[in-house]
Recover the amino acids of this structure.
């Protein structure tokens, strides 16, 4: 059964009230979610220092519009959150209200593929709404972290953004390390004895996966520089250290992407050069053997002509002498090509 709401609760610095375990919430068995959402919003507004967190999973546009109406989300930001092709970005004003749009990544070790999902985090006055598209990016670790930390909950909805952002960016670092390891393995194969012919496809494939990571990380680099330099107005003073740490992780992941991309390009060029070199070596060997075979072929062709007056044709030792000449010439050419490195 499809569950749009994956988590919903009322959070205060002192306590957490998980309104409902939506994984057991059957619709229409327990009714439509709208009354529960409106009740949560009213309780949130009437409770001091409280905020609500609603987590949505692949909602339809009508379902997303319903939540937007209850919590007063900007239609333009809702449009961005519903667009899975949207670039990652932060559109948060100086009051800490707005949208953070992130790409969530996961690494499949068996195939070295990178899977991509999208996660939008709306933060506003006493609410946070997360909208997830794709099977990756389960937010239960962030929710459990928030439930276990009164200090974090004291920062209100911004604590949700921090916990989610920290989880997503930590995933970037893990994947950057995995891609770096794959690059090292490819590098060893490129310069192995069996050469680069078998790894060109692997380089192209890994480069494509690295591009997926670049699309997720690169748009966040400018924000990361600003938050590291503490120039982001909406970050609460007490959380500047935590957000600065996230910014540093984004920059580290970006550096990993750039390093992997440069190494892959270098390996592709090296692989092509090694293939050309191997082809040149093969051509030299073929040419050397053709030259060696050409001498006895030419002599045999001459003596195969139907002429009567030919050198040593009537001598008993003429046949062995011609064979010996062929053999000596072939040995001489073989040694000459061997010394020159052609064989």
């Amino acid at each position: 059964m499809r569950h749009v709401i994956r988590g919903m609760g009322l959070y205060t610095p002192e306590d957490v009230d998980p309104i409902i375990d939506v994984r057991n919430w059957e619709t229409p068995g327990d009714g439509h979610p709208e009354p529960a959402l409106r009740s949560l919003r009213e309780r949130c507004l009437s409770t001091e220092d409280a905020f609500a967190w609603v987590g949505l999973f692949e909602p339809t546009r009508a379902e997303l519009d319903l939540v937007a109406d209850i919590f007063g989300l900007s239609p333009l930001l809702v449009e961005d959150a519903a667009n899975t092709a949207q670039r990652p970005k932060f559109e948060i004003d100086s009051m800490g209200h707005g949208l953070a749009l992130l790409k969530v990544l996961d690494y499949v070790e068996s195939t070295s593929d990178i899977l991509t999902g999208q996660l939008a985090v709306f933060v506003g006055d006493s609410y946070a709404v997360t909208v997830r598209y794709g099977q990756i990016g389960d937010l239960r670790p962030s929710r459990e972290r928030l439930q276990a930390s009164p200090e974090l909950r004291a920062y209100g909805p911004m604590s949700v953004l921090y916990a989610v952002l920290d989880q997503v960016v930590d995933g970037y670092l893990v994947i950057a390390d995995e891609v770096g390891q794959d690059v090292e393995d490819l590098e060893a194969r490129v310069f192995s004895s069996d050469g680069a012919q078998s790894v060109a496809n692997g380089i192209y494939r890994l480069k494509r996966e690295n591009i997926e990571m670049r699309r997720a990380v690169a748009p966040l680099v400018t924000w990361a520089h600003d938050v590291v330099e503490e120039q982001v107005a909406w970050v609460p003073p007490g959380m500047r250290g935590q957000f600065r740490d996230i910014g540093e992780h984004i920059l580290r992941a970006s550096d990993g992407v750039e390093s992997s991309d440069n190494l892959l390009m270098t390996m592709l060029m090296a692989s092509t050069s090694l293939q050309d070199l191997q082809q040149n070596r093969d051509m030299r060997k073929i040419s050397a053997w053709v030259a060696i075979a050409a001498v006895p072929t030419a002599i045999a062709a001459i003596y195969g002509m139907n002429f009567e007056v030919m050198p040593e044709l009537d001598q008993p030792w003429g046949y062995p002498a011609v064979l010996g000449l062929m053999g000596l010439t072939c040995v001489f050419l073989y040694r000459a090509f061997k010394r020159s490195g052609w064989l």
User: Anything to note?
Assistant: The first strand starts at residue 5 and ends at 11.
